[in-house]
Every structure is written in C-alpha cells, then in structure tokens.
Design brief:
InterPro entries: FAD-bd_FR_type, FNR_nucleotide-bd, MRET, Riboflavin_synthase-like_b-brl. This protein is about 10% helix and about 35% strand. It contains two helices and eight strands; from the N terminus they run βββββαββαβ.
Length: about 160
C-alpha cells in the first residue's frame, strides 16, 4: 500500500520552473505544463499531489498535478478561471505565458492513492477531476483496474 499522507519535508527548497505549454481544455480551463529551468528531472511525487505556485502580488495558490508520477520531465496542472478569483486563477488563465518562469514549492500530497486496491472507483465533478487524473494515469501505468464517474455543468465546462 502507498503512503497515503506523503508530505514534502520542511526543509524542501522552492523550485524554479518554466511554462512549457499552455492549452485551453475547456471554456474557462487552461492546462499548463511546467519544466525545470535547468533541464534536470523534477522531484518525484505521488499520485494525487499538488504544487503551490508563487504568483505576483505575494499570492500562493495550490493546484493538483494531473500527470502521473511516472512523468519526471514536467509538472502538469489544470486551472479553472473562477469568476470570483482573488488573483490566482485569473492570473494563470489570463496572463501566464509560455516561457514565463515561476517559483513553486515541491509537490506534496494529503490525498494519497491506495495502489493495491482490487479496483479503484473515482467520483469527480468539474475541475475536481485534476488530482483524479494523476491517480488514473498512475493506475494505468501499474495496470490496475479503475472506474470513473465524472459530472460537469455542461460539455463546454468539462475539463477533460
């Protein structure tokens, strides 16, 4: 069984990452891939983990990783532009550009996956699919069975 509550060590240092790609995946949702600025593999993570982005104006926002932990060359997130945004999602969706460099905290996880379950069942709605995508991708790599039940307001707002 995996460590369900894998946390980042207190002495973990922030990382500098570069925006490699930005893709509009729904009417208000952007998928963003980050790579290390020095070209080295990024620190590992467990399925369901998230990163904290350090944004202008002393903002720090947490976003779930959508890629599986087998992928070490990038961190992938998806961000929904909240109409009541206090700056985080609006910045990522409206202003972030390919090539921008950001500081992030290394991935940490408080939403771990039981990897050896006979079968995993996931329930997600809207942008809440993001940590589940990481888990599903990891289970696929492990060749473990899973089912997903996903709901969204409408097709245009479905993240993936």
């Amino acid at each position: 069984m995996s460590d369900l509550h894998h946390h980042t060590p207190a002495d973990a240092r922030p990382l500098e990452v570069r925006v490699a790609t930005i893709t509009m995946v729904a009417e208000t949702i952007r998928a963003v891939d980050f790579v290390s600025v020095d070209g080295q593999p990024l620190p590992g993570f467990t399925a369901g983990a998230h990163i904290n982005l350090k944004l202008p104006g002393d903002l720090s926002r947490s976003y779930s990783l959508t890629n599986g932990p087998e992928t070490r060359d990038r961190y992938s997130i998806a961000v929904n532009r909240d109409v009541a945004s206090r700056g985080g999602s609006a910045y990522v969706v409206d202003r972030l550009k390919v090539g921008d460099v950001l500081t992030i905290d290394p991935p940490h996880n408080t939403f771990g996956l039981v990897e050896d379950a006979e079968q995993s069942a996931f329930f997600a709605g809207g942008i809440g699919i993001t940590p589940i995508l990481s888990m599903i991708r990891h289970l696929e790599a492990l060749k473990r069975p899973w089912k997903l039940f996903y709901a969204a307001r409408n097709r245009a707002s479905a993240a993936f």
